[in-house]
């Protein structure tokens, strides 16, 4: 990959919504599967970069959410990317076990096909 | 892929934010690259499914945004997926040309590496 420019990174340079959050998509580095989408605040972004453990902000619990801290299904950060509008992040991760709380590898396990929803994958054992 | 259950789909069954929007991630069906993330309302979801042309809701213009309608850089819908919380969509697409308005294939063209931002790809010709 060609490095075209570099500049120093500051989490406050990202665009957050009115709640101070930015969406972050997690993609499996190996399979390239999209695992989940969750939210980060500026401090989550800093912690994720410092620890290489993907750390979201839980909107329901209103607290930091180190992915897999209780379940063991951690996401090791491989690469963190920013989009053109600086209002969405992409975390390329090494996922241990399922990413979804339903025990499926990915949260995106349902497909809409001809007005019907079809389940694409089952929970992991 | 094993089909575990099917049920009829209604766009109003999704969870939208206070502005009536749901984020939608676009992934290239072939390369599996994440191309962009934008927003849909319930009518965008219906139109996308009816036409197989990915149709977002432009927050800046407050209007429907048939991706590529003016640029020709259309996204043909291959599969539309819903996540476990029903508050995020994944559109698997066949992308014509660049997805990003900067003329890059993907909007996620910047990587954060050791407190520095590095450009990963250049605009397409």
Overview of this protein structure:
The structure is a homodimer of 125-residue chains. Chain A is mainly β and 125 residues long. The first copy, chain A, has a domain at 18-97: Roll (Ubiquitin-like (UB roll)), CATH 3.10.20.810. Chain A contains 1 helix and 9 strands. Chain A has one helix at residues 42-51; strands at 6-8, 22-28, 34-40, 55-58, 63-66, 75-82, 89-95, 110-113, 116-119. Chain A has a 4-stranded mixed β-sheet with strand order 3-2-7-6. The first copy, chain A, has a two-stranded antiparallel sheet with strand order 4-5. In chain A, strand 6 and strand 7 form a beta hairpin. Chain A is globular and about 45 Å long. The termini of chain A are far apart. In chain A, 38% of the residues are buried. At the A-B interface, strand 1, strand 2, strand 3, strand 6 and strand 8 of A face strand 1, strand 2, strand 3, strand 6 and strand 8 of B. Strand 1 (6-8) of chain A pairs antiparallel with strand 9 (116-119) of chain B, so a sheet runs across the interface. Chains A, B: One of its GO terms (biological process) is L-histidine biosynthetic process.
